[in-house]
Design brief:
- By secondary structure, this protein is an alpha/beta fold.
- It has 6 helices and 7 strands.
- Strand 1, helix 1 and strand 2 form a beta-alpha-beta unit.
- The N and C termini lie close together (8 Å).
Length: 193
Amino acid sequence: MALSTGTKKINTAVFISGTGSNLKSLIKFSNLKKSPISIKMIISNNPKSKGLAFGKIYKIRKKIFNFSNQAKTEKEILKLLKKKKINLICLAGFMRILSKNFIQNFNGQILNIHPSLLPKYKGLNTHDRAIKNKDRYSGCTVHFVTAKLDSGKIIIQKKVKINKKDTPRTLANKVLAEEHKLYPEAILKIINL
């Protein structure tokens, strides 16, 4: 299902837990004339998330949710998304797994960016695992979110060469640089499907 844009931009929410570098690149992308999205909300489960600062800088509404009662929290988020007419969710380093119920009750699309070439290395510590397995390439993947962790349909991937001197940190930096380019590409791709 493609998201229809017409001339109106798609109301988008970005979910973050950390530094928000993908959020920042998505905001910059959303400000371009050719961009089909408009970021209306930043949602985080982490009050200390550095990425929340971008809400202030770019004047985007931000909301922090405590996930101690996930079912209740997800209900509140769904209500808020509906109220704000959000049709696209971009998970950008969001360190919570959304329930099947949440995914089924959200009427738009949910995308995620993952720092590996899925289906390889679902979950955490992807760079560490790629180096330990002596892989020649790692990379990043943007995919649709389903109830199964990192298993939704792949939209787009980008390979990154692993050098002998790479550490999990240097590899993470190389992959992150590609993530910033790949997420906007993925959004343009699903819009034009």
